[in-house]
Write a structure and sequence with these properties.
alpha+beta, two-stranded antiparallel sheet, 4 helices
Length: 111
Protein backbone atom coordinates (compact mmCIF):
# COMPACT_ATOMS: atom_id res chain seq x y z
CA UNK A 1 0.00 0.00 0.00
CA UNK A 2 1.20 3.47 -0.87
CA UNK A 3 -0.30 6.83 -0.11
CA UNK A 4 0.31 9.68 -2.53
CA UNK A 5 -1.26 12.83 -1.16
CA UNK A 6 -4.93 11.96 -0.77
CA UNK A 7 -4.78 8.79 -2.87
CA UNK A 8 -4.22 5.33 -1.47
CA UNK A 9 -2.82 2.88 -4.02
CA UNK A 10 -2.91 -0.83 -3.32
CA UNK A 11 -0.92 -3.32 -5.39
CA UNK A 12 -0.75 -7.12 -5.23
CA UNK A 13 1.90 -8.23 -2.76
CA UNK A 14 5.18 -9.62 -4.07
CA UNK A 15 4.45 -12.86 -2.21
CA UNK A 16 1.14 -13.14 -4.04
CA UNK A 17 2.84 -12.56 -7.38
CA UNK A 18 5.50 -15.14 -6.64
CA UNK A 19 2.88 -17.61 -5.40
CA UNK A 20 0.90 -17.45 -8.66
CA UNK A 21 4.08 -17.88 -10.70
CA UNK A 22 5.15 -20.86 -8.57
CA UNK A 23 1.70 -22.41 -8.91
CA UNK A 24 1.79 -22.05 -12.71
CA UNK A 25 5.27 -23.57 -12.78
CA UNK A 26 4.08 -26.50 -10.65
CA UNK A 27 1.08 -27.09 -12.91
CA UNK A 28 3.22 -27.05 -16.03
CA UNK A 29 5.80 -29.31 -14.42
CA UNK A 30 3.20 -31.86 -13.32
CA UNK A 31 1.48 -31.76 -16.73
CA UNK A 32 4.49 -32.21 -18.98
CA UNK A 33 2.81 -34.93 -21.02
CA UNK A 34 -0.74 -33.57 -20.83
CA UNK A 35 -2.46 -32.16 -23.88
CA UNK A 36 -2.76 -28.45 -24.43
CA UNK A 37 -6.49 -28.56 -23.67
CA UNK A 38 -5.85 -30.31 -20.35
CA UNK A 39 -3.24 -27.74 -19.35
CA UNK A 40 -5.60 -24.90 -20.24
CA UNK A 41 -8.40 -26.50 -18.19
CA UNK A 42 -6.12 -26.62 -15.14
CA UNK A 43 -4.55 -23.16 -15.56
CA UNK A 44 -7.68 -21.15 -16.39
CA UNK A 45 -9.37 -21.32 -12.96
CA UNK A 46 -6.08 -20.55 -11.20
CA UNK A 47 -5.31 -17.49 -13.34
CA UNK A 48 -8.87 -16.21 -13.42
CA UNK A 49 -9.20 -16.54 -9.66
CA UNK A 50 -6.00 -14.61 -9.04
CA UNK A 51 -6.96 -11.91 -11.54
CA UNK A 52 -10.48 -11.56 -10.14
CA UNK A 53 -9.13 -11.24 -6.60
CA UNK A 54 -6.73 -8.47 -7.62
CA UNK A 55 -8.91 -6.68 -10.18
CA UNK A 56 -9.85 -3.83 -7.84
CA UNK A 57 -6.31 -2.73 -7.12
CA UNK A 58 -3.84 -0.71 -9.18
CA UNK A 59 -2.37 -3.69 -10.95
CA UNK A 60 -2.08 -3.02 -14.71
CA UNK A 61 1.73 -3.06 -14.65
CA UNK A 62 1.78 -6.15 -12.46
CA UNK A 63 -0.82 -7.93 -14.62
CA UNK A 64 1.34 -7.19 -17.66
CA UNK A 65 4.45 -8.51 -15.94
CA UNK A 66 2.69 -11.66 -14.69
CA UNK A 67 1.20 -12.21 -18.17
CA UNK A 68 4.66 -12.06 -19.73
CA UNK A 69 6.25 -14.38 -17.16
CA UNK A 70 3.44 -16.92 -17.56
CA UNK A 71 3.82 -16.69 -21.34
CA UNK A 72 7.53 -17.49 -20.97
CA UNK A 73 6.69 -20.54 -18.85
CA UNK A 74 4.08 -21.77 -21.34
CA UNK A 75 6.46 -21.20 -24.26
CA UNK A 76 9.11 -23.30 -22.50
CA UNK A 77 6.49 -26.01 -21.88
CA UNK A 78 5.61 -26.06 -25.60
CA UNK A 79 9.25 -26.03 -26.72
CA UNK A 80 10.10 -28.88 -24.39
CA UNK A 81 7.45 -31.04 -26.01
CA UNK A 82 8.90 -30.58 -29.51
CA UNK A 83 12.68 -30.20 -29.29
CA UNK A 84 13.22 -30.92 -33.00
CA UNK A 85 10.64 -28.47 -34.32
CA UNK A 86 11.16 -24.83 -35.15
CA UNK A 87 9.73 -21.76 -33.45
CA UNK A 88 7.20 -21.10 -36.22
CA UNK A 89 5.85 -24.64 -36.09
CA UNK A 90 5.47 -24.48 -32.30
CA UNK A 91 3.74 -21.09 -32.54
CA UNK A 92 1.33 -22.38 -35.18
CA UNK A 93 0.60 -25.49 -33.11
CA UNK A 94 0.01 -23.92 -29.68
CA UNK A 95 -0.71 -20.22 -30.14
CA UNK A 96 -3.49 -18.35 -31.95
CA UNK A 97 -4.40 -14.81 -32.82
CA UNK A 98 -7.46 -13.38 -31.07
CA UNK A 99 -8.37 -9.97 -32.45
CA UNK A 100 -5.37 -7.69 -32.07
CA UNK A 101 -3.67 -9.99 -29.58
CA UNK A 102 -1.22 -12.49 -31.03
CA UNK A 103 0.45 -15.40 -29.23
CA UNK A 104 -2.64 -16.46 -27.26
CA UNK A 105 -2.20 -19.93 -25.76
CA UNK A 106 -5.47 -21.47 -26.91
CA UNK A 107 -6.87 -24.44 -28.75
CA UNK A 108 -10.16 -25.34 -30.41
CA UNK A 109 -9.81 -29.03 -29.64
CA UNK A 110 -11.99 -30.48 -26.90
CA UNK A 111 -10.06 -33.34 -25.31
Amino acid sequence: MRKYGNKLLIKPARKSQQAILNKVADVLKSNRTATQAQVIMVLNPILRGWAMYHRHVVAADIFSRIDHLIWVKVWRWARRRHPNKGMRWIKARYFERHGMRDWVFACNKAS
